[in-house]
Amino acid sequence: MARLISMKPVPLALLASVALSLAAGADGLILPDHPERGWLTIVDHHVRVEIVDGVATTRVDQRFRNDSHVPLEGRYIFPLPPGAVVNGFAMWVDGQPTEAAVLPAEEARAVYEDYVRRMIDPALLEYVGRDTLSARVFPIPPGGVRRIEISYSEILTPEQGLYRYRYPLDTERFSARPLEEVTVEIDLSTSIPLQAVYSPTHAMTVDRLGPNRAVAVHRASDLLPVSDVLVYYSVSPDEMGLSLFTYRTPGEEGYFLLLVNPRFDADATSVPKDLLLVLDRSGSMSGDKIEQAKEALSFILRSLNPEDRFAVLAFNDVVESAQGGLTPVSPEAVAAAVAWVRRLEASGQTNIDEALEVALSMTTSSERPTAVVFLTDGEPTVGERDPIRITEHAVAWNHAAARLFCFGVGYNVNTVLLDRLTLENRGTSAYVQPGEDLEGVLASFYAKIAHPVLSDPTLSIQGVDTFRVHPGVLPDVFRGSQLLLVGRYSGSGDAAITLTGQVLGSEARFAYERAFPEVSLLHAFVPRLWAGRRIAYLIDQIRLYGESDELVDEVIYLSTRYGIITPYTSFLVEEGADDFSAEELAQRLGAAAAPATGSFAVQSSDALRSLAEAETVATPGVAVKVVDDRVYFLRDDVWTDSAYADEDTIRIAYLSDAYFALTRELPWIAPHLAIGDALIVRVGQQFVEVGEEGVEVPTPELIDLLTAGSST
C-alpha cells in the first residue's frame, strides 16, 4: 500500500534534530504527462546533510520552471535510499499543500516501466528497485515555478570504519536546460575525531572546524550533472588515520586505495621546516608578473611558522640572496626580507642552472623538511642550457633531499625541464597561464605545505602482494592534507600495514591491520582512479624519457579499458579510431607528447599533473559512459562495453517483455540499460545486445542462461 505523507512544512529546528548515516540517495524529477510538449527546467538543486555521530538528516530543496509556451503537468518522483524514512514533503499550488505517497519498490517499478515505454527513454531504469516518493504536479503555466522540499532520514552501519554517502545528480535527461545552480553541503560532527573526508567523484571544499567537525561543500552552476555524488568519511582516535578502499571481482586481481590522514588539531605545533624561495627576475618577468610574484613571496614570508628557517633568492644572469643563507624566522628578519623583495626589478637573462646550484647548496639539514619554491617564466638563456644536464646537476646538489616545487609562468617555460626537475627531486610542478592570478596560486600552494607533519614517508603492506602502486615515492604529509595511494593486489586476507617517516629528525612508526577481500564490489570508483594515475605515470615516462612500444601499448589499453581520455589519447573515441594501426596510434601519441614549450605543452602538463594527483574520478566525455566498473564507448550509435571484441551476442529487443525481464531477474543491470536504447552489455560470460531487433518474450531457458553466474 502507498503511504501518504503529511504536507506540513518541516521546521529547520526539526531538520537539525533528525539524522542519518551516509548512504544512497537520489535526486527528484518531474516527469511530464506529455513529454512531446516539453520538459521542465530544474532551476536549482540544493542538498543539505547534517550528520551527528553517524545519524543525520538530509534535506533537498529544488525549483522547477516551465520554459515552454504551454502549461505542463506530470508526476514528481523521488527515488528513496534503502530504509529511508521521509520526515517531510512540501509543495504548494495556489496556497494549498499537495499530497505525496511513498510507493513500495514493486509498485514504483510499474510506474518507471510505464514512463520508459511512453517516453522511449531508458534513463529512468536507473531508479528501479527503490521505494519512491511520488506526488501529482498540476499544470504549471508558462514561466511558472514549483518549489519542492523534502527531508528524510536513515541509518547505515559503516564498513571497516568507513561511512558512505551517495546522492545521484544525473539529471541530464530530465531537465530542459542546464541547472542554474547546484550545491551539496555536508556538515559532519562526531564524538571520535574525524579522519578522512573524501569524495572520489566531485571537487569538495572541506573546511576543518576542529578535530571532530568538518563541512564539505560542492558547488557548481550552469551544468547538466552526469555523475552521482559520493562522499566517504571515517573516524579514528589514532594520530595518523588510515582508510582502505578495495574493489575486486571474482577471479581477478584487486584494486586498492589507501587514504592517510593526520589527526586535525589547529593548535598542534608544526614540525619546523626550511623554506627557500627562488624568484626569476629576468627581463621577461617585467610588468604584472614581477609585481604579483613579489606580493606572493611577501605573503609567504609573513606566514612562516616561528620555528622555521628561510632564504630568499632572485636570479637573472646572476644569483642574489637577501640573507646569504638560511635565517631563523623573526619579525626583524621577515621585515628585512620583505623589503628586499619589494625592491626587486626585472632585467637581464635567465640562468636557471646557477640559481638551482646556489639554492640547493643552502639545503644542508636533513633533520627537518626542506622545500625549494622555484618560480620562472622562461627557458635557460645563459649558463647551462641542456635540460638533462640541469636536472642531473640539481640531483647532485640536493644533498638534503629537499623537495623542489617549480612554478612556470606563461607559455614560454620548458615544461619538460621543470617537470623532470620536480620528478627527480620529489616535488610537483604547476603552471600559471596568462590571465591567472599568480599571487593566488602561490598563496594557495603555501597553505598546503605550511604545516609539515611527517616527512620522508614510506609504507609497507605484508600479507598480500601489491604491485603497480602509485605514487612510487610518497609525498610528505601536511596538516589538513591527506596522502592517497592506489595500486593492485593479489591474494586476500588480513594484511599488516606500516607507515614510517621522520618527525623532528626521529623516526615515527604507525601500524595498522586491514582486510584485503577476495571479492569486494562496493567501491567501483577505485579501478578508474588507479588507471588515471597509472596512465599519468606512463605518459610522464614517455614525455620525459622517450617512448617505447611497451609504454605506448599500455597507455592505449588502459585508456580504452577504463575510459580515461587525455589530451594524448582523445583520438581513441574519434570516429574511425578503430581503423588506426598500432604504429599510427603510437605516432599520434608521440606527436602529441613531444612539445616542451608553448601553450599546448603547458596545458598538457597541467592536465597530466591533475590526472596524476587527482582525488576524484573525472567525468567522461560524451562518447564515454561509466557504470560501476564498466566503461562503454559509443560505436556506430551503440553503447559498447569496452571488453567486447566482436563476439557472439544474445540479442534482445528494446522495450520488449524480455527487456524488462532483465531488470527483474538481474537487478544490477538496470543502471547499465539506462545509458541508452542500443547497447552491448556483459552478463557473466555472455554479451547481451539491446536494439531494435531480438528476443521479445523471455523464456525460462533465456533467463537460466543469463542468471547463471551473472551477479555482476
Task: Describe what you observe in this structure.
With 712 residues, the chain is of the alpha+beta class. The chain folds into five domains: 3-235, Immunoglobulin-like; 246-268 and 453-516, no CATH class; 274-449, von Willebrand factor, type A domain (Rossmann fold), CATH 3.40.50.410; 526-613, no CATH class; 636-707, no CATH class. 24% of the residues lie in helices and 34% in strands. It contains 15 helices and 38 strands. The strands form eight sheets. The protein has a seven-stranded mixed beta sheet with strand order 6-11-4-3-13-16-15. Strands 20, 21, 22, 23, 24, 25 and 26 form a seven-stranded mixed beta sheet that branches. It is globular and about 80 Å long. It starts with a strand and ends in a 5-residue tail after the last helix.
Structural class: alpha+beta
Q: How does the major sheet shape up?
A: 7 strands, mixed
How would you write the strand order of the largest sheet? Answer: 6-11-4-3-13-16-15
- How many helical elements? 15
Please report the distance between the alpha carbons of the first and last residues.
31 Å
Strand content: 25-35%
| Total discrete domains | 5
Radius of gyration: 28 Å
Number of E strands: 38
User: Which blocks of ≥5 consecutive residues have pLDDT under 50?
Assistant: 1-26, 574-583, 585-594
The level of helicity is 10-25%
What is the third-level CATH name, the topology of the largest domain? Immunoglobulin-like
Mean pLDDT score: 82
Instruction: Specify the CATH class of the largest domain.
Output: Mainly Beta
Task: Using the alpha-carbon principal axes, give the shape.
Answer: globular
CATH architecture descriptor name of the largest domain: Sandwich
